[in-house]
């Protein structure tokens, strides 16, 4: 959504509210907040038409820190509030802030439906694979074996992959980025904002208190290059310290495999080229996890379709164009009779 | 042209109660509603009570698959669908079995003998065919007819096949009953032709069956003691009338409220019996700018409505008791956010899934108290189907003026029951235009209150300069920022309570519906029991008793002066379709020994039941 430009050039400060930020020192949320506050002025976002809407949890305190319109709702339900708001005022640029617990556990139903309906909002899911605000219980994305106050002998639940849930729900924009990778996160958020319809952005985020370094294997400089694939539309999917590894489809199979350019006769021409509009490929990319595969970061799928809110309002507008309703006429419709 | 015996050949009756009963696939609701429409057009006052099973198609022939439709029509004004039927139409043994106990002594029984075959008798639990039991039949006046055979004969020329042909048997029956009470077939003919416009054979067969039933009444010799009847027109106040069900009235009232307030209507709803037809009705009103959203669940439905309210719409959610339970947290949020929201609870039998298609008033305490924390909200209750229209407007007025969610209670009986309704004119309804702040006042914050109403400003996203953050965390009274300050929470809790309590100044004072402001006995009711209580109190007064009636349309806050009014009576009774809820509230508010008269059967009160309670409590 691109609301009309405000008159004066705004800066990061214009998007910061006067409230003290109350996350723990070192929380990944600080980095995400800073990136958003820096990014919005670059796309001429109008604070009056920008809304941050959240559920409950650490990430959901986000709206209080943005000098825009903000709505801190109840646990898991932010997508539903956002849908009602968007149907009321489609001019608003709505950002839903949620976490792995808020969005995938208590709010899993709403997350699925806001995506499949394709409501024109951005949904940022901060995934730290733990419950922070309730003090460290395991979440739907926690790995099997995670010891937490509610799983003293280790979690036995299979974790979900947020991007797969989003794709399965029919999301038409699915991206993944990292809290501290500002140079990657910023453009990813811009792309999400420009996309009409629901945009889903999973942000790998660190909780230094309850699940520190859960993404270290993706974020560390040494291991990172081999553990991360930075997606670019139209470019071959090559990664690794030497830029020598790549993805291709395993022959006679519906699986990806990692190959090395220069080995076994593999050349760059054998490497799959990323196509943001290819939904089956997006599923394969979303499901990749280290150490077998790199983690795919960037836009996994961008395949726009008409947004739900626009379609709903078009039906209303069409009905009104055919003749505005008149209450007196409505009340007097059908069988009536008069008593003198 | 329909022909009737001349007026002098018809016996004039003041009022008649007819119950149509059959299998849920027999089309009894249709038969009843068609009889209702024609009766209304003939100028009788009427009230109806559809009573059907929760199953869409319960197994044929079973007692739990019986569907009934009762209509009470009269030459005077009436307020209830009647206690006991004068006429019972029973289409099969199960319908006879489940309804015969209600038929008046010497009542008229019209029974489809063709359905009294071995299998059906067994399913209904009859060891012997009751139609062969002379002692049983002698208690009633009986028209025993093989309606199935008559219907097949009437529609034979259309060659529909037996199964399809038999579908018209309800129309044959309707034709006969229309004739018995001097009603024409033309309105139903017109309706059938419109409904089956694309299936002309089906339309013709139904019309043929209808006319054959009507002609049967005219030509056949009816058993002795059974004649033709007429019920003269009622003297109702002048005006244009229509039939209306509570759910239609509610949907239209909400739409009218949208016009009167100048706000766009946004409904978030999830299908639930008996509320779904409000969603259906509103979904058809897009040309009024109405936006309906069928959400993924009850919680999403209310959340969408709250989101819409924040955006400056008239946010509404419609549901029944189980839905209200699910919405509780979000309603609490709306109380904390101090945003308008209308929650319509079309009550049904509970707890849990309870009896979805049966009526009850057992959500009252949930409506008044059912949220976490000290979470007061206004609670209103409609008392007749037509009143749903006006209370919907009133709920909206209070909600936007005081920036608070409002609960509007109706019930399954009001939702599905119909009554002739004098159509109001929009010009006679008071507009309540809403204006949103556009300028940032000095010291603006989202909880800056109007000193009189205590309402906060409705600042909507999209307005430059009014950017603010709201949420479910407690807010500072003076800045609107998050606050965990102990004294502030105390003050904010008291303020939210005072805001809702203050609405009492803005609603009509308590006054007797019937009777004086003092006496021996005060009957206090609320909601759909209105008609039955009013009739019972009128009858008691006609018998010289010092009884008055107060009927509450506002339950939180209660109307001003109610305590003083109660003090003028020696005794107070509270008839309710629950196990004692308003009586608890009145006891706690006024320290009065309010006696509960409770009926929790899924069926509305009979006038006689309340009359009996009045007599017992006067003794």
UniProtKB/TrEMBL annotation, chain A:
UniProt key word Acetylation? no
PANTHER family, per the entry: 2-OXOGLUTARATE OXIDOREDUCTASE SUBUNIT KORB, 2-OXOGLUTARATE OXIDOREDUCTASE SUBUNIT KORB-RELATED
Q: Which keywords does UniProt give here?
A: Oxidoreductase
- Any one GO MF annotation of this record: oxidoreductase activity, acting on the aldehyde or oxo group of donors, iron-sulfur protein as acceptor
Q: Which CDD domains match?
A: TPP_OGFOR
Domain Thiamine pyrophosphate enzyme TPP-binding residue range list: 56-203
* Source taxon at top rank: Bacteria
Organism, by scientific name, is Plesiocystis pacifica SIR-1
Q: What is the lineage of its organism?
A: Bacteria, Pseudomonadati, Myxococcota, Polyangia, Nannocystales
Q: Does the keyword Nuclease apply?
A: no
**Signal peptide from the UniProt entry:** none
Q: What Gene3D superfamilies does the record point to? A: 3.40.50.970
Q: Pfam family example for this protein?
A: TPP_enzyme_C
What protein am I looking at? Thiamine pyrophosphate enzyme domain protein TPP-binding
One Gene Ontology term from the biological process aspect of the record: small molecule metabolic process
UniProtKB/TrEMBL annotation, chain B:
Which protein are we looking at? Answer: Pyruvate flavodoxin/ferredoxin oxidoreductase-like protein
Q: Which PANTHER family match?
A: 2-OXOGLUTARATE OXIDOREDUCTASE SUBUNIT KORA, PYRUVATE-FLAVODOXIN OXIDOREDUCTASE-RELATED
Q: Keywords in UniProt for this one? A: Oxidoreductase, Pyruvate
Domain Pyruvate:ferredoxin oxidoreductase core residues, every copy = 520-584
Q: Which Pfam families match?
A: PFOR_II (PF17147), POR (PF01558), POR_N (PF01855)
In its keyword annotation, does this UniProt entry include Oxidoreductase? yes
Q: Give the record's GO biological process terms.
A: response to oxidative stress
For the Pyruvate/ketoisovalerate oxidoreductase catalytic domain, which residue ranges apply? 25-214
Membrane-crossing residues?
none
Care to name a GO molecular-function term for this sequence? oxidoreductase activity, acting on the aldehyde or oxo group of donors
Alphabetical list of InterPro entries matching this protein: 2-oxoacid/accept_OxRdtase_asu, PFOR_II, Pyruvate:ferred/Flavod_OxRd, Pyrv/ketoisovalerate_OxRed_cat, Pyrv_Fd/Flavodoxin_OxRdtase_N, Pyrv_flavodox_OxRed_cen, THDP-binding, Transketo_C/PFOR_II
Domain Pyruvate flavodoxin/ferredoxin oxidoreductase pyrimidine binding stretches: 266-474
């Amino acid at each position: 959504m691109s609301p009309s430009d405000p008159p004066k050039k705004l800066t990061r400060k214009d998007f910061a509210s006067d409230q003290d930020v109350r996350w723990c020192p070192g929380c990944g949320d600080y980095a995400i907040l800073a990136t958003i506050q820096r990014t919005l002025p670059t796309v001429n976002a109008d604070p009056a038409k920008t809304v941050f809407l959240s559920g409950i949890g650490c990430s959901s305190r986000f709206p209080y820190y943005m000098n825009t319109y903000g709505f801190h709702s109840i646990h898991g339900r932010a997508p539903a509030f956002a849908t009602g708001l968007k149907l009321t005022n489609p001019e608003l640029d709505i950002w839903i802030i949620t976490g792995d617990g808020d969005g995938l556990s208590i709010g899993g139903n709403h997350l699925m439906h806001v995506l499949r309906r394709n409501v024109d909002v951005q949904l940022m899911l901060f995934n730290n694979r733990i419950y922070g605000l309730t003090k460290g219980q395991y979440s739907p994305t926690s790995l099997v074996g995670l010891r937490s106050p509610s799983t003293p002998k280790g979690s036995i639940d299979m974790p979900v992959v947020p991007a797969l849930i989003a794709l399965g729900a029919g999301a038409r924009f699915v991206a993944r980025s990292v809290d501290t990778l500002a140079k990657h996160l910023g453009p990813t958020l811009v792309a999400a904002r420009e996309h009409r319809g629901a945009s889903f952005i999973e942000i790998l985020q660190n909780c230094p208190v309850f699940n520190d370094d859960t993404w270290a294997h993706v974020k560390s400089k040494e291991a990172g290059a081999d553990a991360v694939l930075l997606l670019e539309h139209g470019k071959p999917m090559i990664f690794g310290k030497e830029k020598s590894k790549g993805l291709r489809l395993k022959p006679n199979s519906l699986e990806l495999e990692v190959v090395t350019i220069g080995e076994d006769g593999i050349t760059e021409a054998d490497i799959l080229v990323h196509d943001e509009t290819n939904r089956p490929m997006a599923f394969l990319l979303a499901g990749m996890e280290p150490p077998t595969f790199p983690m795919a970061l960037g836009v996994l799928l961008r395949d726009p379709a008409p947004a739900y809110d626009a379609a709903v309002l078009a039906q209303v507008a069409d009905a009104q164009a055919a003749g505005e309703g008149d209450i007196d006429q409505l009340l007097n419709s059908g069988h009536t009779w008069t008593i003198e | 042209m329909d022909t009737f015996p001349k007026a002098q050949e018809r016996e004039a009756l003041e009022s008649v109660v007819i119950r149509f009963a059959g299998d849920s696939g027999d089309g009894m609701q249709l038969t009843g509603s068609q009889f209702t429409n024609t009766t209304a057009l003939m100028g009788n006052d009427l009230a109806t009570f559809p009573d059907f099973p929760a199953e869409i198609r319960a197994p044929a022939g079973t007692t739990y698959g019986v569907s009934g439709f009762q209509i009470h029509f009269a030459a005077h004004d009436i307020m209830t669908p009647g206690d006991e039927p004068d006429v019972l139409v029973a289409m099969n043994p199960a319908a006879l079995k489940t309804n015969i106990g209600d038929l008046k002594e010497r009542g008229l029984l019209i029974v489809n003998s063709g359905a009294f075959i071995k299998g059906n008798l067994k399913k209904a639990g009859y060891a012997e065919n009751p139609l062969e039991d002379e002692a049983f039949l002698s208690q009633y006046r009986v028209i025993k007819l093989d309606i199935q055979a008559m219907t097949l004969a009437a529609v034979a020329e259309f060659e529909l096949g037996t199964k399809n042909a038999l579908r018209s048997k309800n129309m044959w029956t309707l034709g006969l009953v229309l004739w018995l009470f001097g009603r024409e077939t033309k309105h139903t003919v017109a309706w059938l032709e419109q409904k089956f416009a694309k299936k002309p054979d089906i339309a013709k067969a139904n019309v043929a069956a209808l006319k054959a039933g009507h002609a049967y009444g005219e030509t056949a010799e009816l058993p002795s003691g059974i004649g033709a009847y007429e019920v003269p027109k009622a003297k109702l106040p002048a005006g244009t009338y229509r039939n209306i069900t509570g759910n239609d009235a509610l949907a239209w009232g909400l739409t009218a409220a949208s016009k009167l307030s100048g706000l766009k209507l946004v409904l978030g709803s999830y299908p639930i019996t008996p509320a779904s037809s409000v969603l259906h009705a509103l979904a058809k009103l897009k040309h009024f700018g109405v936006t309906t959203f069928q959400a993924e669940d009850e919680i999403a439905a209310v959340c969408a409505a709250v989101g819409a309210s924040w955006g400056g719409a008239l946010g509404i959610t419609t549901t029944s008791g189980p839905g209200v339970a699910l919405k509780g947290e979000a309603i609490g949020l709306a109380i904390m956010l101090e945003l308008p929201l209308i929650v319509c609870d079309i009550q049904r039998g509970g707890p849990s899934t309870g009896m979805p298609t049966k009526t009850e008033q057992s959500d009252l305490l949930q409506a008044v108290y059912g949220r976490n924390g000290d979470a007061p909200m206004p609670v209103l209750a409609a008392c007749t189907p037509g009143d749903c229209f006006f209370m919907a407007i009133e709920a909206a007025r209070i909600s936007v003026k005081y920036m608070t969610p409002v609960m509007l209670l109706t019930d399954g009986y009001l939702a599905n029951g119909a009554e002739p309704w004098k159509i109001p004119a929009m010009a006679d309804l008071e507009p309540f235009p809403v204006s949103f702040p556009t300028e940032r006042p000095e010291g603006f914050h989202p909880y800056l209150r109007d000193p009189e109403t205590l309402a906060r400003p409705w600042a909507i996203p999209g307005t430059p300069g009014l950017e603010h953050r709201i949420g479910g965390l407690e807010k500072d009274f003076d800045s609107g920022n998050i606050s965990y300050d102990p004294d502030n929470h105390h003050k904010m809790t008291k303020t939210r309570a005072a805001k809702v309590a203050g609405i009492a100044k803005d609603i009509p004072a308590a006054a007797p519906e019937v009777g004086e402001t003092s006496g021996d006995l005060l009957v206090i009711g609320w909601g759909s029991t209105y008609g039955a209580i009013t009739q019972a109190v009128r009858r008691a007064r006609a018998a010289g008793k010092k009884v008055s009636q107060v009927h509450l349309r506002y339950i939180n806050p209660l109307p001003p002066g109610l305590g003083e009014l109660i003090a003028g009576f020696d005794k107070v009774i509270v008839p309710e379709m629950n196990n004692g809820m308003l009586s608890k509230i009145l006891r706690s508010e006024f320290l009065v020994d309010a006696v509960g008269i409770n009926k929790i059967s899924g069926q509305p009160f009979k006038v006689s039941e309340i009359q009996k309670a009045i007599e017992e409590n006067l003794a």
